[in-house]
Amino acid sequence: MDLIIVESPSKAKTISKYLKGKYRVDASGGHVRDLPEKRLGVNIDKNFEPTYVDNPDKKAVIKRLADEAAKAEHVYLATDPDREGEAISWHLKTVLKLKEGKNRIEFNEISPTAVTKALQNPREIDYNLVDAQQARRVLDRLVGYKLSPLLCKRIKSGLSAGRVQSVALRLIVDREREIRAFVPEEYWNVNAELQDQPAKYAPFKALLCEKNGKKYLPSCAEENEKVRAELEGGEYRVHEIKRNVTRSHAPAPFTTSTLQQDASNKFGMTSPDVMLVAQHLYEGIDTESEGHIALVTYIRTDSVRVSAEAQAAARQFIQEKYGKEYVPEKPNFYASKKGAQDAHECIRPIDLKRTPESMKGTLDKKHYNVYKLIYDRFLASQMSEALYNSVQIKIRNGIYGFKASGKTMQFAGY
């Protein structure tokens, strides 16, 4: 029987269910090798060559996997589809003494179709990705191992430095210095509550914005009182009205960072909490009706790209559930940020028929909230724009100019 090695037991359980016992699926529990704990482990004079040792707590895992690999006809390394996962596969290949060849498989989602397709298209280990991970790990070690003791000695014990957190701290300090150097300038907002005569519509607010045709806001309390006195008893006349239809385009589907931000804003979740819940949704959760199933695609991505198959499925689902007018004439595409690796798709639900409502009795509150967030955001990203009837009004009172704006929904769209 062929052997598939993944990282987590939960992922192994999901894949094993999908493959119905045709393959043995086991988990490494993450990295099996790393740099040594009590020494630098990087030869700076020899092109920063790292020295790896087997993780002490993984000896039993390595032995078990080695025994299983010896019995298997083929061994497939199915760790996560990123540079960290690629490095774990490389380490597994090394400690298990696997032969060179196409034994690496990857998939962006844990579904029967994706897993089967990956098994049909194994590839060799991508050493560019492995080298990228090694560079990151070596930098972590060089910065942390060299700088952390200095911080503890000079500032406070228990402090640590890192490749990312040290740079982030510098950015925070620079921004704080900008904030402290900022010289505030006082200004006052003046609003007029207006209503047509005779009163046909509800009152609305207009904001003072001009004086003698130039941009203007009172700069102190005395000036504000003077303006109010000059406006008192004056006549407010509509000077200009502009009507147009404005469009609101749906936001892009989630990347790792935008998911963390939205979950934090809406539910007050910390980034580690969001990622832990998202990881469970990616690897699979237990259900009464379907057993162990995965709900979302890979959750570590900086891309907003959507596969053609997922896009087509979304458009069909939207048409069936909401109507043809909610499907845009051309599919919605989003541009990833400059510098994005774009190695994987956005974070999206695997099957749109598994609606948040249908999973409510299965998922706890945190898992339901995050799944609904991912589901709704992806579905919205593939829907038509919202349309609004917008009005901008310019109003004059003597030498002063006011502006007011408003909009009413014409078509809800996403």
Task: Please characterize this protein's 3D structure.
With 414 residues, the protein is of the alpha+beta class. It has 3 domains: 131 residues, 3-Layer(aba) Sandwich (Rossmann fold); 84 residues, Distorted Sandwich (Topoisomerase I, domain 3), CATH 2.70.20; 129 residues, Orthogonal Bundle (Topoisomerase I, domain 4), CATH 1.10.290. Helix content is 38%, strand content 18%. The chain has 11 helices and 15 strands. The strands form 5 sheets. Strands 8, 9, 10, 11, 14 and 15 form a 6-stranded antiparallel sheet that branches. A 3-stranded parallel sheet has the order 2-1-7, with helices on both faces. Strand 1, helix 1 and strand 2 form a beta-alpha-beta unit. Helix 3 crosses helix 5, helix 8 packs across helix 11 and helix 9 crosses helix 11. It is flat. The relative contact order is 0.11.
Major beta-sheet overview: 6 strands, antiparallel
Overall SS class: alpha+beta
* Beta-strand content bin: 15-25%
Helix fraction?
25-40%
Approximate shape: flat
Distance between the termini: 48 Å
Query: How much is the radius of gyration in Å?
Result: 29 Å
For this structure, what is the CATH class of the largest domain? Alpha Beta
Which architecture of the largest domain does the CATH hierarchy give at level 2?
A: 3-Layer(aba) Sandwich
Average residue pLDDT: 94
Order of helices and strands: EHEEEEEHEHHHHEEEHEHHEEHHEE
How many strand segments? 15
The tally of domains stands at 3
Number of helices: 11
Q: Would you tell me which CATH topology of the largest domain applies?
A: Rossmann fold
Low-confidence stretches: none
